[in-house]
Amino acid sequence: MRTVNRSKKGISRTTSIAIVVVIIIAVVAGVIIATRHPAPTTPTTSSSTTTTTTTSTTTTTTTSTTTTTSLAQTLMSLVGLSSPPSTPVKITVWNSYSTSENVFFNKTIAQFEQTFPWIQPSVTYGVGVGTSQFETAAKAGQAPIVYRDSSDSGGALFAAGLILNLSSYLPSSVFSQYLPIAIKDWTLNNSVYGLPDNVNYIVMFYNKHFVPTPPNTTEQLVQIAESVNSTYHIWGISYGAGDEYGYRFAAWFAGFGGQIFTTKNGVVMPALNTSAMVNALNFWYNLTYYLKVNYLAPSTGAGGAEGQLFVSNKTAIIFDGPWDLNAYLQALGPNLGAAPLPIVSSTGLHAAPFVGSTGWVVATPQASGATQLQIKAGLLFALFMTDYQSDFSLWNTAHDLPANQQAYNSAIAQINAGNLTPSYLNPVMKGILEQAQFGQKFPNIPQMAYYWNSFHQYATEFFAGKITAEQAAQGMEKAFVQALEQAGFSLLPAFALAPIEPNYED
């Protein structure tokens, strides 16, 4: 039986933005492990109903027991266990799921306990992702054994030696069950440090009442925004670039030809002081202050000013991620549309958002005080939570984009067959998945942590009209470099570079 803790720790900014997603390519599933059922095209659910017929009850119980036993044996063999231990094993778990995602989690952890009755999870809910909370606990030897984090902050934990190199604990065949981009997000220096449960990124959400057809280029974006503004007297776009920390803006920076890091003489350095940054900043400044079609919202997301304007039909277009999808579906219903960010007309490049991931990591014994048997139990938990049935259940419950290859294929089959309910959800999810063709890998090197505040400080000053775009680009790069030097990153090894990857099509 698990114990439950309710954490009052706030969800971090990384959680609220946590990037991105699936790749729309026809990939034949590789070596699929940890599958509880054959791959269906419709969701498989379990129930605990009471059957009045004795024969029926016996058959159901036998099937369930056989399936559970088979799965347990399969997963235990992956972590080097031939049989369950004779005494219970306790593990601590930090859960960073949202409210809607926890509907999935609570059902799935009950299935985990049924499959592994000798493992007793103690769960803390509502823990924000990001390195600070975990790092503080780890340095005191009190980190949880298992933790759900984002791939970028998990990379910093791995570089600090606080979480396991899973490549040393699991067969390489395990990693082939995940989408290539998802497992890349969890790989640093050829070592896998986490198992992904979803992929995420931002897309363009639009209100079909005002925008019947989404823009494909920035020229069309401007034209549509002007038309909406003059016809309906509402904002064409709500994008709070002045409140940015550079997560969403990275997509526009890439569209104008920029990338956050570059290599100079074999050394990786920040590359923010470029014409691409200047042009991207000026583009949004012009839409905001000269054309007056973009509202510089003071807060982002479904709960912020951007989302509130969108759900109240006071703006036509916003840029947000699938994590806020349910709020927009409830408000707009069949009027909700989703599409990839447009091509930047001046460069011909797609605005390319970060493609990120969340997933499960296992702390080192030094960070958590775990025994080797507890480590194995933690690995079993991570494998179970990211296998086919679990990931497909997360998709069906909360619309998280699957990182498991087989679950992704089943999700695509659902959409292609028009099986999602309500029916208008099918084109919305199709538009969201389309964006995956035009994304960039979310840098997961430790140095990335010093980008956010450097960007925010000077972007805020720029959109407040205090400095020019050129001064902002110069200032944010200088601040970035200074922050790295103060943290001991005066030289960045070339192998750590996470280059822009604008297109994941075959």
UniProtKB/TrEMBL annotation:
GO terms for molecular function: maltose binding. The keyword Nucleus does not apply. Residues 38-66 are annotated as: Disordered. The keyword Transport applies. Residues 42-66 have a biased composition (Low complexity). GO terms for cellular component: ATP-binding cassette (ABC) transporter complex, substrate-binding subunit-containing. GO terms for biological process: maltodextrin transmembrane transport; maltose transport. Keywords: Membrane, Signal, Transmembrane, Transmembrane helix, Transport. The chain crosses the membrane at residues 12-34. Belongs to the bacterial solute-binding protein 1 family. This is Sugar ABC transporter substrate-binding protein. It comes from Candidatus Marsarchaeota G1 archaeon BE_D. The lineage of its organism: Archaea, Candidatus Marsarchaeota, Candidatus Marsarchaeota group 1.
